[in-house]
Amino acid sequence: MEINKLGIVGAGQMGAGIAQVAASAGIDVWINDISDELIAKGISKITKSLEKLVSKKKITKDDAEGIASRLHKAPGLGDLAEADFVVEAATEREDLKLMLFDKLSKITDDNTILASNTSSISITRIGSATQRPDKVIGMHFMNPVPVMKLVEIIRGLTTSEATTQTTVALAERLGKTCAYSKDLPGFIVNRILMPMINEAIYALYEGIGKPEDIDTGMKLGANQPMGPLALADLIGLDTCLAIMEVLHRGLGDSKYRPCPLLRQYVDSGRLGRKTGRGFHNYGE
Ligand code: CAA
Question: What's the CATH number where 35 sits?
């Protein structure tokens, strides 16, 4: 099945990143969010990213204009009715995703595949919110989407082989490599990555080191491209907390308990780069 019209729900950093790579691959993209302002913000983020690529001579001005022309605003979910494939990249909240999938399955054609970019919530449960769980799949992109090569593919209990093949073909068309994970909390990447980030936050909480030292330690001592606290700031501390809560609840092991300091930062509104401040300061 050839994908020509892609719907994206959520114009935040993940949704905008997915829209950018899809439009760059020649696919027309319809972007939805809860307000026109958020959609416009997402599109403006993409055009800025394209301008950077032009200034680095990675793409031409014509390429950038072509890509931008394939980005369309979808102010209502109903504007995604004609999509061949929808990727949901909304906030990491289960009640929200269940509501969106219920609505999307009613709005779109019965053949439209509904993928979630969830980083940890059960695909089987999301599929159960629809009348066609065989067409529901996890398609988990990594942040920053234009740079990171991986897409995790997660099949729910009844996701069909055809749905999987179409999703993998789409991911490959976007230049990504797929890794397959069972539908268990956190899948592969976050099951391993998030406890490491949470442990780094415990190291800060217990006063083992300052944020700079924790990050320098892991960057230069373990060859990570960026330190775990800087990575938490990039991902968003609210997202990190939501994932730790899914791991803790879903696996029932106390080793996944979110660090109290992470919760406190989220409560205070320090969510990382997107709010200008997290474990590091980005000039609020
Ligand atoms: N969008 C587009 N391009 C970007 C970008 C962005 N947001 N951020 C960086 N880049 C590009 C830069 O333009 C640069 O491109 P060129 O080499 O062509 O000039 C390249 O990426 C490298 O960037 P920088 O030189 O600025 O900095 P860097 O070398 O430190 O790389 C990084 C930045 C790619 C983010 C790197 O630090 C990195 O790989 N960090 C780890 C990221 C990671 O682990 N992501 C996964 C998070 S987990 C997740 O997403 C799953 C989840 O569910 C939470």
Answer: 3.40.50.720
Whether the CB of 190 sits within 6 Å of ligand 1: yes
d(CA 83, CA 5): 5
CA distances to 24, 36, 115 from 98, in Å: 30, 22, 12
Q: Are residues 230 and 175 in the same domain?
A: no
Q: Looking at residue 27, what DSSP letter applies?
A: -
Task: Give residue 268's domain range.
Answer: 191-275
Q: Is 196 in the pocket of ligand 1 (CB under 6 A)?
A: no
Mean pLDDT for the chain overall: 97
For residue 128, report the distance from its CA to the centre of ligand 1, in Å. 35
**Is there a contact between 7 and 30 (Cβ–Cβ < 8 Å)?**
yes
Six token digits for residue 36: 């026109």
Residues marked as catalytic: 119, 140, 152, 190
Give residue-wise pLDDT tens across range 69-79: 999 999 999 99
Residue nearest to atom 20 of ligand 1 (CA): 147
Mutation pick for ligand 1 pocket among 226, 238, 262 (CB with most ligand atoms within 8 Å): 226
Alpha carbon nearest to ligand 1 atom 7, residue: 144
Tell the residue nearest (CA) to atom 32 of ligand 1. 225
- Terminal C-alpha separation, the chain: 45
Whether the pLDDT of residue 284 is over 70: the answer is: no
